[in-house]
Specification:
Blueprint (H helix, E strand, L loop, with lengths): L1 E2 L5 E2 L7 E3 L5 E3 L1 H8 L8 E6 L7 E6 L6
């Protein structure tokens, strides 16, 4: 997360194409394909990010999705 010159926070994240199910075997992540096709993220314009959850230093940020890249 970065703070820009105009005091706006910018947050970027990635969704893995494959994930390890715990025994070393990679499984295709169905969310990656749905995100790629826009089926999930198209309806989710806002992402809430919580840092230090359930602590005295908890901070909550709402981000608006403005760009998706593959």
């Amino acid at each position: 997360m970065t703070l820009s010159d105009d005091s706006m926070y910018e947050f970027s994240f990635s969704i893995p194409m494959y994930y390890d199910r715990g025994d070393g075997i990679l499984i295709e992540n169905p969310l990656w394909y749905n995100t790629r096709n826009g089926n999930i993220m198209i309806n989710m314009r806002k992402v809430k990010v919580i840092f230090n959850k359930a602590t005295d230093n908890e901070r909550v940020f709402d981000f608006v999705i403005t760009m998706m890249t593959e």
